[in-house]
Target: Phosphoserine aminotransferase
Amino acid sequence: MKKHNFSAGPCILPQSVLQKASEAVLNFDGLDLSLIEISHRSKNFVNVMDRARELALEHLGLQNKGYQALFLQGGASMEFLMVAFNFLETRAGYINTGTWSDKAIKEAKLFGDVVEVASSKGANFNYIPKDYQIPSGLDYLHCTSNNTIFGTQINNFPETDCPLICDMSSDIFSRVLDFSKFDLIYAGAQKNMGPAGTTLVVVKEEVLGQVSRKIPSMMDYKVHISKDSMFNTPAVFPVYVSMLTLEWLKELGGVATIEKNNNKKAELLYNEIDRNPLFKGFVANKEDRSKMNATFSLVNEDHKLDFDTLWTEAGINGLNGHRSVGGYRASMYNALSIESVQVLVDVMKEIEKKA
Ligand code: PMP
Model:
């Protein structure tokens, strides 16, 4: 039996997707060739790329709205600098809600001035800042929708008159938002989409081409758009698996359906964290809690050995928290079933009885 995989990323993917992906590695499209040994220029792969790009826009409700979807390489970390390369002329604003925002800020500072519009760094990122003033004249404002390490998630996105850019690596396709509020969205594949190795970038074409600097081709979103996301050899396997996952999501009923599942899973686990006297949540305000990554710890570390033994024996994987937070982190990405969350909740109840 498969483990209950609460890993933060790379993480759980739908079993049917893994099955199809493994078949395509042996024999893709009935070609008697592997997906990973055919030309990326072949009609069969170009169809995959086109379909993946189309599905990404469809799930975000951004078809025929002037947006382009790209599957690039270098991870979300590459987007930290590509964003600045393509948009930062003088001054950009960043909302600092975690390690990944912090890293994005560091890269942007190589290209121009960075204003930290708001930050929760002083409280080890245990909340989402609100009620901040956004200065005028920014080239763009950058935020991180879900903070994978700390387990916080933005619910109310800033209203701006400058381009709004968002790192959605760990909650893309998990909830319905008005995605047309954003001018550029990026997300590493390895949470809700596919294996590590490709990054989805969704960008509104009209906001590009505003900086005066010369941009190397590989760093230039316009170049990738002009080549239909095939400027160089794309990460064929990660793009294919992402396409399969996006098809799976569509068959399931799309983002609105998965959001209902995600809400139920998060409610089940957070209710137990709040009810069970042995545990406490990490996030300061309940409204900032992430539906993707729940961070919590034992009130009394004396129970650690028993708890760790119980969840390991129950077939749970990937529950240890990030070293900068400690405790536990249950990542409940799209492909995780509510039954797996129930197994974790049962273990939490069991340890309470034993204590
Ligand atoms: N942003 C967020 C929100 C992340 O969770 C991560 C990685 N988990 C990254 C950026 C960095 O992604 P990558 O490792 O693909 O560069």
Observations:
- Residues 9, 75-77, 100, 144, 148, 167, 169-170, 188 surround 4'-deoxy-4'-aminopyridoxal-5'-phosphate (CB under 6 Å).
- The two ends are 29 Å apart (CA to CA).
